[in-house]
């Protein structure tokens, strides 16, 4: 198995993982970050401000490679060993997703309130 960014041929057990719903080749013993970089996936995470970031240190100090692994948010890709059938979601951030969800709920409540206020009869009394 040859990946686009490998320097040498892959040695060891090879398998695949899912990254954002697509199959990506992986090698037993490497980190999730190594798998992503070998497949030329550079935009690894989205920070708490919604900006895309790539890996910085690659050894667990900077937290720039946090992503969702098997449904768990804020996992450091450089510190987690790749496993067969692993489900990885890059550019995922629970903080950003929560803020977007709250904003959507708030906007829906404003729409509901507007609908209630506009639903009046001619005398100006609220219509139930």
Topology:
Blueprint lengths: L13 E6 L2 E6 L4 H7 L6 E2 L5 E2 L12 E4 L2 E5 L10 E3 L4 H25 L10
Parallel strand pairs: 1-7
Antiparallel strand pairs: 1-2, 3-4, 5-6, 5-7
Give structural notes.
It is a single chain. This protein is α+β, with helices and mostly antiparallel strands and 128 residues long. The chain is 25% helix and 22% strand. The chain contains two helices and seven strands; from the N terminus they run E-E-H-E-E-E-E-E-H. The chain has helices at 32-38, 94-118; strands at residues 14-19, 22-27, 45-46, 52-53, 66-69, 72-76, 87-89. The strands form two sheets. Strands 2-1-7-5-6 form a five-stranded mixed beta sheet, with helices on one face. A hairpin with a 5-residue loop joins strand 3 and strand 4 (52-53). It is elongated, with a radius of gyration of 22 Å. The termini are far apart. The mean pLDDT is 83.
